[in-house]
Please model this.
Amino acid sequence: MTDAVLPRRVAMLSVHTSPLEQPGTGDAGGLNVYVVETARRLAARGTEVEIFTRTTGSGLPPVAELAPGVLVRHVVAGPFEGLSKDDLPGQLCAFAAGVMRVEARREPGWYDLVHSHYWLSGQVGWLAADRWRVPLVHTMHTMAKVKNRALAVGDTPEPDGRVLGEEQVVQAADRLLANTDDEARDLIDLYGADPDRVSVVPPGVDLDVFRPGGPDARRAARRRLGLPHRVRILLFVGRIQPLKAPDVLVRAAAEMLRRDPARRDDLCVVVVGGPSGSGLARPEELQVLTAELGLGDVVRFRPPVPRPVLADWYRAADLVVVPSYSESFGLVAVEAQACGTPVVAARVGGLVTAVRDGETGLLVPGHDPRSWARVLGDLLDDGARLRSMQAAAVRHAAAFGWDATVDATLDVYRAAARDHARRVRLAGLATLPGALGPADPGILVPSGRAPATAGRDAGLAGLGELAVAP
Ligand code: UDP
Model:
């Protein structure tokens, strides 16, 4: 692969969750959507993608075609059922062995690049890219240090092992993809990433699926979903866990009714999604809270739905509410806007980019249900403002197509390949007889960095510090 040439084939790693799963519950969410959408479009442009994911069922074939040019490879690593994401660090060796075996059956140079998603995959990608001598591009999706900085009350912090694993991946990757400038800053400030290796590439929205749907769209969507026409709908979409804070919406609804009991006749809160992450420990918690607050007649729960149906939910809603404690981007917020529905979101992480405060929705600081109740109530009552936000939301979301994401991703692939090739060349020079430094490139260590934390090309990354023989 040279500067001008696209990778022929990318090994994409998604250890802990499969692109074939329905997003919105368990471990499946935005990452899965991201992998599917980018892989399909990379393949359409001539770069084949093979996605490696862990086998989680006896009925899964070793290989499945997701789309033309996109294969999903199921790798056996541990029992199919009964392992949570927290158990997976113990299966990374088995997973990596499975990935290496697939490659070994192919002609040399089968993959031009490894793109790993989430830190668990980054650990495997580090090894694979090192052995295959190809660049590693990594996308974090979420980061332990960022999550732990803004935990919901009572939520479980991410363990130190994850922090350490993420730090290693940051050092090992030729390029890190960040969703937003904020995420790039976190990679640099919290994880010591080299700014030259961090590229900001915003994710996208499938603008063919998520679109406004015409003048009578809300009424039509409600009809299809069996919802009454004359209610005000506040919608939460996503994985139900403390981090996503659907309880803030439920508590805010209770507060809205306390302030104005007449709203009870027309307020409807809908939660679309299933339990996930630390929320799995108490999957009924939100339903219990709803009952405790006396909102059984106001709040409806729906299981996750495929994306065309989700588009109808967005169209049916008056407002989509995203009260997360942290969010690396927040695809739901952009999808809702693409359907013409304004978003009220927490002023955190990627949501600050996803929502234009005051134009396409509102950003709320903090998680006090009283402030959320005030903001939601005032906006629902301001028809003119809502209408102007609906139009602005569609325009804003139009900038987030996946094609732009894939264009930028391919640029990053090219840059990663260029840098990688240069470092490999320099490493070769550094190991010539007469060069200063250790002779085995596998144990090259630049001054002041220990091998364990210096990343896969410890010597390569630090070549500036190594004297190279003339
Ligand atoms: N989603 C879905 N069906 C559902 C609920 C969610 O397809 O019933 C998708 C949604 O379209 C979005 C993703 O799940 O693309 C959630 O992504 P987001 O970035 O909002 O949150 P994450 O899961 O990454 O934390």
Summary: The first strand starts at residue 9 and ends at 13. Confidence is low (pLDDT under 50) at residues 436-470. The two ends are 28 Å apart (CA to CA).
